[in-house]
Amino acid sequence: MKNKLGVHALVWVGGWSHEECERAMAQTAEIGFDLIEIPALDPSSIDSAFTRKMLDKYKLGTTMSLGLDDSTDISSGDPEKQKRGEARLMQVLDVARDIGATHVCGILYSAFQKYFDPPTQAGIAGSIDVMRRIGEHAAKDGITIGLEVVNRYESNVLNTAAQAVDYAKRVGLPNVRVHLDTYHMNIEEADLESALIDTGAMMGYFHIGESGRGYLGAGNIDFDRVFRGLAKAGYEGPITFESFSSAVVNKQLQGILGIWRNLWEDGADLARHAKGFIEHGMKAAHEAHARSALT
């Protein structure tokens, strides 16, 4: 299997103190993941030097993810908000550079919130202008930007893979790519497999999560089709498992994501199951794809 496998830090911890950082790294490495995804809603809370030290200690790669808020919404059409949003994203890129992150992903193109009006063309154009500068800056450090496609309750800009492909093409940089997530795709896409195949080479990052945010296979997502879609698309980038439970609480994300129920207690069991589930699913999908290519 060519894809590096990752796990979101919120499977382990709700914050990023030194103790939480090391605990998350140790548990990620123990199960055998290749990388850990670090949330960066507040990049100032990340001790870059200590984080890099722990990544080296546990021999892990890393990626980062975040969403902008209303005051930093680069899709708003408000020049001051755009300015603050660009500054926030640049701050995250500096942290990503310092810790050796390969990807910065998430809702980077708008606010991470429920909107009550559709986006404007001027707002989207402004977002693309900022994202082009962000992408150029990221490229200097070999960082890929992932535009996460999320459901209609978390953004009004990119809700489908096709929208993200169009946005990324308008940015026009090879390191600004589409970030797909099965939890969101299950809400918005008519056909998950086709969406993955159609995104193809534009896909730069992938989140795997269940419809209810819990154990993979316990919800209603057809993961056989998801794995087939990834294989047919020729996707070789990271596959990161994302799950949330009120057992591990980040207060800011709990409210935005609506994490009100305790979906699991044992993060290690959850993550170990996810790793095996992904490995088996991708192996089967690649073998099936190889057989079909011979016929």
TrEMBL record:
Keywords assigned: Isomerase
One protein family per Pfam: AP_endonuc_2
GO molecular function: isomerase activity
Xylose isomerase-like TIM barrel domain location: 26-254
Gene3D superfamilies in the record: Divalent-metal-dependent TIM barrel enzymes (3.20.20.150)
SUPFAM superfamilies membership: Xylose isomerase-like
InterPro entries reported for this sequence: IolE/XylAMocC-like, Xyl_isomerase-like_sf, Xyl_isomerase-like_TIM-brl
Keyword Isomerase: yes
Name by which UniProt lists this protein: Sugar phosphate isomerase/epimerase family protein
Phylogenetic placement of the source organism: Bacteria, Pseudomonadati, Pseudomonadota, Betaproteobacteria, Burkholderiales
